[in-house]
């Protein structure tokens, strides 16, 4: 009897200790994420987070939808400066230098201790890692990544006497196709534009498609030097301006990013440049058969990468950093990456995700999903520098001045380069 009582007491104490240990091991994480395109992104990321939490009850993840990319970096920096940062966040890959300068994030290299972890760090497409590493260290993990692609209305192509299966392959063809696709009524008013390249929000990104195709890079890898006044950059901006001012295949003035898919659905434009992150949105809402292709080439093919990376924040406990690391490994694993791509159209950021049964079935049913992945062969890093928001604002303002006819492209870019040099001189 005494033995039974002793055993019962001992077992009860052990259970209490186990319960206490479990409580002590519980980790709370706050996770900021943005959604910049239409579709199922917010619902999907919440579902993935819930799935992980259900399988890992000792990790509590508060997934906070922080708005647009701009909203997310603003809220994150405010939280960092106030001493209450999230433990992890998806933020634009180009904000890496800003986060480093704020001393807000840590490199992943120190958390990747095992051979498997180190192999995981090298499992992503090199084109996406260009905006994720600096100084030999990995600060961001690709997740919500994209490239711009060309969408076209196959019915509009047929009506214009163009092959509906063949998009323009060059700058010259883009103009020629655009002229055939631009429709006017009896009074000469345009009822359908040939093409649409958005120039609001973050116009530098789509403009970087043109500069890459013209074989020029806008900034160096160190993030402290821009090339805005390079003659090839000027030539690219002149081409963009001429699409409206000279060739009349694109509406004049600033073209809104957010309304571009709707304009495409409603037949206001026969072609558009936008992110592959809009792929699911277009698939769900286009009332006609459409195509997806790589951006047209000039001196070469090319497009910038884009989208968001995962970051882990410095002002976290060791347990929170380790838990964040494990969650990021899980959500970027092939099965989860496939779910994310299928739901949103973002590019699965590692090759093995494309080998999963779900992804193979997806691309068999919907081959356009492969376009952005295949375009990575020609992709370059999105414009990213120290003081990145100031630098991109300077370039965006120059683009707007040229597009609206306030300044000639060469003058606008020369002024932008001078201002960027003034800001970045201290980082060289």
UniProtKB/TrEMBL annotation:
Protein's UniProt name: Carbohydrate ABC transporter substrate-binding protein, CUT1 family (TC 3.A.1.1.-)
InterPro entries per the UniProt record, alphabetical: Bact_solute-bd_prot1, SBP
Annotated Gene Ontology cellular component terms: periplasmic space
Pfam families to which the protein is assigned, alphabetical: SBP_bac_8 (PF13416)
Secretion signal, residue range per the UniProt entry: 1-26
Family listed: Belongs to the bacterial solute-binding protein 1 family.
Highest taxon, organism lineage: Bacteria
Keywords of the record: Signal
Record localization: Periplasm
SUPFAM superfamilies with a match to the protein in the record: Periplasmic binding protein-like II
Organism: Thalassobaculum litoreum DSM 18839
């Amino acid at each position: 009897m005494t033995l039974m009582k002793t055993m019962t007491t001992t077992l009860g104490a052990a259970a209490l200790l186990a319960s206490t240990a479990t409580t002590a091991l519980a980790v709370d994480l706050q996770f900021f994420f943005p959604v910049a395109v239409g579709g199922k992104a917010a619902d999907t990321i919440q579902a993935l987070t819930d799935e992980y939490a259900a399988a890992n009850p000792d990790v509590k993840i508060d997934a906070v939808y922080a708005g647009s990319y701009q909203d997310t970096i603003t809220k994150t920096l405010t939280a960092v400066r106030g001493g209450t940062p999230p433990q992890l966040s998806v933020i634009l890959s180009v904000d890496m230098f800003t986060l480093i300068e704020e001393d807000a994030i840590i490199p992943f290299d120190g958390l990747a201790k095992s051979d498997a972890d180190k192999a995981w760090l090298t499992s992503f497409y090199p084109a996406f890692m260009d905006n994720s590493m600096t100084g030999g260290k990995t600060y961001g993990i690709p997740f919500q990544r994209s490239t711009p692609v060309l969408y076209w209305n196959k019915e509009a192509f047929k009506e214009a006497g163009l092959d509906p299966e063949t998009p323009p392959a060059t700058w010259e063809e883009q103009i020629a196709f655009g002229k055939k696709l631009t429709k006017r009524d009896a009074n000469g008013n345009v009822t359908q534009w040939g093409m649409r390249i958005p120039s609001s929000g973050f116009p530098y990104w789509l403009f970087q498609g043109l500069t890459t195709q013209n074989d020029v890079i806008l900034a160096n890898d160190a993030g402290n030097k821009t090339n805005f006044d390079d003659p090839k950059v000027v030539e690219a901006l002149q081409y963009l301006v001429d699409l409206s001012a000279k060739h009349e295949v694109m509406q004049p003035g600033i073209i809104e990013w957010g309304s571009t898919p709707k304009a495409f659905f409603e037949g206001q434009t026969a072609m558009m440049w936008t992110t592959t992150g809009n792929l699911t949105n277009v698939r769900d809402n286009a009332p006609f058969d459409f195509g997806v292709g790589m951006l047209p080439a000039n001196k070469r093919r090319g497009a910038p990468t884009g989208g968001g990376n995962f970051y882990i924040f410095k002002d976290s406990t060791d347990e929170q950093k380790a838990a964040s690391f494990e969650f990021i490994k899980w959500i970027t694993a092939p099965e989860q990456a496939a779910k994310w791509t299928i739901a949103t159209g973002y590019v699965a950021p590692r090759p093995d995700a494309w080998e999963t049964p779900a992804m193979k079935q997806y691309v068999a049913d919907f081959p356009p999903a492969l376009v952005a992945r295949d375009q990575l062969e020609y992709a370059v890093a999105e414009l990213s520098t120290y003081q990145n928001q100031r630098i991109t604002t300077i370039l965006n303002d120059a683009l707007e001045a040229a597009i609206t006819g306030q300044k000639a492209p060469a003058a606008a870019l020369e002024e932008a380069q001078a201002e960027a040099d003034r800001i970045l001189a201290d980082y060289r």
